[in-house]
Amino acid sequence: MSEQTSKPILAIRDLKAGYGGGRMIVNGVDINVGAGEIVCVIGQNGAGKSTLLKGIVNLIQLRQGTVQLDGKDVTDLPAQKLLLEGLAYIPQGRSIFPRLTVAENIRMGGYLIKDRAVLKRRHEEMEAMFPALAELRGLQASSLSGGQQRQLELARTLMMDPKVLMLDEPSIGLAPRIVDQVFTVLRDLAKLGKAVLMVEQNVRKALAAADRGYVLELGKVRLEDRAQALLDDERVAQLYMGMRPTAA
Amino acid sequence: MLAFAEQGMNGLMMGAIYALFALGMVLIYGVMHVLNFSHGVLFMAGAYVCQVIFAQLTGNYFVAILGSMLVLALVGCLLEKGIFQHLRGSLSMQIVASMGLIMIVQNGIIYFFGPLALHMRVETVESKIRLGPLSFTAQHFVIIGVTLVAVVALDLFLRHTRLGTALRATSQNLEAARVVGINPDSIFLMTFALATALAALAGALLGPLFLISPAMGDLPLLKGLTAIVLGGMGSVPGAIIGGFVIGILEAQATLVLPTDYRDAVVFAALIGILLFRPYGLFGKRERGEP
């Protein structure tokens, strides 16, 4: 039903993940993300959205299934190796280093880059891409606004020039205007060929920015379609966007 | 006035020891969020190792200090790998383990070296330096000088190197550190090694001036703890200043009170801080904290 990209850059098969106690929070999920594509996973609280991302980057103890990155099986690689392979992840909430400067935060994104010249060049590229951050480079990161902190997380993550960028609720805690800016940046990144996989509560704006979407319920994929089709879907509208049933 | 200056110098010297001591504790607390109560016996063990290398092996105090720091750094790695790594996530277990270490190390030292105090006769304790009408051992100046060098070196390491920045990053946001590819386990190991080396340095510096005994780390532990509370738990500059403030405070207190009340003055100051400024002189009240 959804138009499948010819060859996904990130392919998740039958992923199960949980925190123990006999219950899997994510219970057999298949997801594909193509290069240059933004894929959004929506679902209610507790549907397993954050656990899904943590499961993909191997930051959770209990997991099964396979993760393929650019045709290579990376299921058992630790998060650090995944980063080197080109899979980056931004956790939910503020993941900056609050008492490092803006510049130090960005450079920490390149922690795994051993070549100083490359590190310096990437840092300059990031400051060119996010001019607002360049002006604030000497400030403590905690003094930045919410939107600037989100930019800082993006800049830090892009230091590794990842193929796939995964974000856990990039819009959380931001003013509506800033949310639009963040999604614009994500669209720009997709234009550059990056694959973006995000989970979101802000269903309307996230789907508007995305190419395709998945609806996650109780750890399983219930619906999968083009983002526009999901936006037009009455069930999605009722369940996740607070719309009343039209015929009621 | 003369007595004031003399006690000022003594206070600076003890303050330097407390600052080194507190630095190690604050590093561990800042990065791993655990108060390592065994820091005092590691300080004591550092003095013993220094004494052995100096008196029985080389006769060179400088080599003995470096050797003692190296040995204790290794001990720190073993403690982290063998004990604390496995207790991560349980604060109370870590505290119990560090209490247990106090008994093991203290009694281990008594077993091997006996309960009597050891001397360590280094040249810098025998030779005096005159400052006008006052005279101090050269060791006073060695302690203050070495401490300043150590503090500057640590500051350069923490602020201007990749690993030092990673250490600070890990202490501020563990999850984000993992996400950028830092391996927290190796940062924890490095922190422990650094902290125990600083404890050894403090022990090796103070050892020759006083006696080296199994209980020599007990009071510095309480003073070091006071220093980091004073400095605002987790603040590195706070720990340094806290250490010096306590050293100078207790030295000056002997001018107005009987010497026996020296420690009481320090702990009264601690109680005062806890009552009126519980987040310390330099700590910031974090959002959400009372």
UniProtKB/TrEMBL annotation, chain A:
Keyword Glycoprotein on this protein?
no
**One GO molecular-function annotation for this sequence?**
ATP binding
UniProt xrefs under SUPFAM superfamilies: P-loop containing nucleoside triphosphate hydrolases (SSF52540)
**Cross-referenced Gene3D superfamilies:** P-loop containing nucleotide triphosphate hydrolases
| UniProt protein name | Amino acid/amide ABC transporter ATP-binding protein 2 (HAAT family)
Q: Which UniProt keywords apply?
A: Amino-acid transport, ATP-binding, Nucleotide-binding, Transport
Report domain ABC transporter positions.
10-243
Per the record, the similarity remark reads: Belongs to the ABC transporter superfamily.
PROSITE patterns tied to this protein:
ABC_TRANSPORTER_2
What organism is recorded for this protein? Answer: Chelatococcus asaccharovorans
Record-linked InterPro entries: AAA+_ATPase, ABC_transporter-like_ATP-bd, BCAA_Transport_ATP-bd_LivF, P-loop_NTPase
Organism taxonomic ancestry: Bacteria, Pseudomonadati, Pseudomonadota, Alphaproteobacteria, Hyphomicrobiales
Q: Which GO terms describe its biological process?
A: L-amino acid transport
TrEMBL record, chain B:
* Species annotation: Chelatococcus asaccharovorans
Q: What is the lineage of its organism?
A: Bacteria, Pseudomonadati, Pseudomonadota, Alphaproteobacteria, Hyphomicrobiales
Report how it sits in the membrane: Multi-pass membrane protein
This protein is called: Amino acid/amide ABC transporter membrane protein 1 (HAAT family)
Query: At the top level of its lineage, which domain of life is listed?
Result: Bacteria
The GO cellular component terms are: plasma membrane
Instruction: Please tell me where this protein is predominantly located.
Output: membrane
Keywords linked to the UniProt accession: Amino-acid transport, Cell membrane, Membrane, Transmembrane, Transmembrane helix, Transport
Q: Where in the cell is it found?
A: Cell membrane
Family, according to the entry, reads as follows:
Belongs to the binding-protein-dependent transport system permease family. LivHM subfamily.
The processes (GO biological process) annotated in the record are: amino acid transport
Transmembrane residues, as ranges? 12-30, 61-79, 91-118, 138-158, 187-212, 224-249, 261-280
Signal peptide location: none
Please give the Pfam families that the UniProt record associates with this protein.
BPD_transp_2
Single Gene Ontology MF annotation: transmembrane transporter activity
Q: Which InterPro entries match?
A: ABC_transp_permease, BCAA_transport_permease
